[in-house]
Task: inverse folding
């Protein structure tokens, strides 16, 4: 194993730096900026059974240290992904994590089955936490019993490493995480965006046509770090991918410390499309200089002992 | 981008300060280094216009920014340009001086409040001249969406091929985030940054 290699249950990655679904297109948009093969992996745009048009504009707006989005899961659909995108990703040597969403349980299962026969998919990530569609999406993520039922059904349909992406908007994140894990998820990724809202002061209308949008970027990082810490503590041994405002090496180290074995870089890809490749290089240099491995960096905050005020996390 | 000057090794940008990003650019000391991602998206089409052709350029406010470069390219191609420049008030037309000497045809200024040039919308100024017999091989436009919507109703019935440089809040700039879409006529959404920003008005669902 190289110093950067990580293992998340059945999923082995060359390094812990991956890119978050919805912020990296199908990967192919970024080839001018990043050698896709150098990344630990890339999570595709959320794939659905049929092509999906998404929400009317405006879809995004800038907010302090982040942004709101309500793209509405626009995507080419699983068939076009398999025939047009995946062969190119394979040729580029990318480690592909296929992100999947649906309106109904059966939609997820059908898409996952279609992926099962495809060559060049390292893992499947279920989006049960998108706040920007009327049906499905976050509905599954907000109810532990629904989460359990969906994940169990998908689990039965795939032999691939299964990641479930959790919603920070769930009433009880730990219970959602537990439900996904108990239903057969190999890995949990967290967090998706926080439901937010921004109003144009002139018109008093929401700045995003959907009304609300998902908040992402450095603004959410402390919230995400806390949530990864809590889930790592509640479910020791369950591999986690940390997501939330990661833009610098120090952010990667922070998520590793609270128990993430890998991370997903999201909104930062818009500010600097080469950021993911840069983080891989910086992490390699860090491990080299410190004579350490990524595996040794995982969970340091837990090993450091009890965190002050831990019991009062809710208030 | 208003114009590159290869001889001088410079690129000119015209900016309107509307938020923190543009404010930061405005406050940059001379000689500062800036990281730039570009050029992105498509361009206005000039090469197919015959020498001696006449075109209209329609600009709304800071929408005038890309036109110094286009005017130069049109001038080099022997194409005459009438420049329609509109804004809410005289202050929004402060850039007009930047265009003196660059416009090969007529310059028509208009303001909503009548404080400078013709009173009314820039689209009305164009419409009046078309009704008066003016003919254009193409209309190039840049400005806010309401101006485009009104302009589409002028150039469409007049049958003038047009290119609108659209404006939308963009996340990535190269077709990955899908944040800057515009409703389309032959598909639900056009990705403004990568399929545009310059689009034919008949492709846009108004």
Result:
């Amino acid at each position: 194993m190289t110093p950067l290699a990580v293992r998340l249950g059945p999923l082995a990655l060359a390094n812990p730096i991956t890119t978050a679904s919805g912020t990296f297109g199908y990967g192919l948009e970024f080839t001018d900026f990043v050698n896709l093969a150098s990344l630990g992996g890339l999570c595709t745009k959320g794939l659905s059974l049929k092509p999906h048009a998404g929400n009317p504009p405006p879809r995004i707006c800038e907010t302090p240290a982040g942004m709101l989005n309500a793209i509405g899961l626009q995507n080419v659909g699983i068939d076009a992904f398999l025939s047009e995108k995946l062969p190119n990703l394979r040729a580029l040597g990318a480690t592909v994590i296929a992100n999947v969403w649906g309106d109904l349980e059966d939609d997820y299962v059908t898409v996952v089955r279609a992926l099962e026969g495809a060559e060049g998919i390292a893992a499947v990530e279920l989006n049960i936490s998108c706040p920007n569609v009327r049906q499905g999406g976050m509905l599954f993520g907000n109810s532990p019993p629904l989460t359990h039922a969906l994940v169990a059904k998908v689990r039965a349909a795939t032999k691939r490493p299964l990641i479930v992406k959790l919603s920070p908007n769930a009433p009880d994140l730990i219970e959602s995480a537990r439900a996904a894990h108990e239903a057969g998820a190999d890995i949990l990724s967290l967090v998706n965006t926080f439901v937010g809202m921004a109003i144009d002061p002139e018109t008093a209308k929401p700045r995003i046509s959907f009304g609300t949008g998902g908040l992402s970027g450095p603004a959410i990082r402390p919230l995400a770090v806390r949530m990864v810490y809590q889930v790592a503590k509640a479910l020791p041994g369950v591999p986690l991918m940390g997501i939330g405002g990661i833009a610098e090496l120090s952010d990667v180290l922070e998520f590793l410390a609270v128990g993430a074995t890998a991370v997903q870089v999201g909104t930062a890809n818009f500010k600097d499309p080469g950021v993911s490749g840069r983080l891989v290089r910086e992490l390699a240099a860090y491990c080299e200089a410190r004579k350490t491995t990524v595996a040794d960096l995982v969970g340091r905050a837990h090993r450091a002992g009890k965190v002050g005020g831990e019991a009062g996390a809710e208030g | 981008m208003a114009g590159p000057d290869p001889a001088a090794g410079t690129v000119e940008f015209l900016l309107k300060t509307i938020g923190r990003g543009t404010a930061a650019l405005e406050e940059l000391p001379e000689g500062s280094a800036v990281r730039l991602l570009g050029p992105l998206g498509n361009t206005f089409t000039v090469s197919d216009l015959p020498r001696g052709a006449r075109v209209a350029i329609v600009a709304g406010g800071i929408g005038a920014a890309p036109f110094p470069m286009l005017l130069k390219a049109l001038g080099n191609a022997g194409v005459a340009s009438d420049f329609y420049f509109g804004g809410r008030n005289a202050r929004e037309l402060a850039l007009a001086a930047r265009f003196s000497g660059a416009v090969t045809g007529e310059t028509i200024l208009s303001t909503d409040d009548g404080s400078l040039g013709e009173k009314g919308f820039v689209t009305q100024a164009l419409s009046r001249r078309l009704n008066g017999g003016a003919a254009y091989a193409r209309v190039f436009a840049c400005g806010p969406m309401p101006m485009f919507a009104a302009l589409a109703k002028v150039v469409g019935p007049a049958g003038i091929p047009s290119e609108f440089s659209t404006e939308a809040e963009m996340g990535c700039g190269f077709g990955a985030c899908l944040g800057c879409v515009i409703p389309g006529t032959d598909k639900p959404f056009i990705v403004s940054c990568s399929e545009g920003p310059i689009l034919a008005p008949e492709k846009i669902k108004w």
User: Anything to note?
Assistant: The first helix of chain B runs from residue 20 to 26.
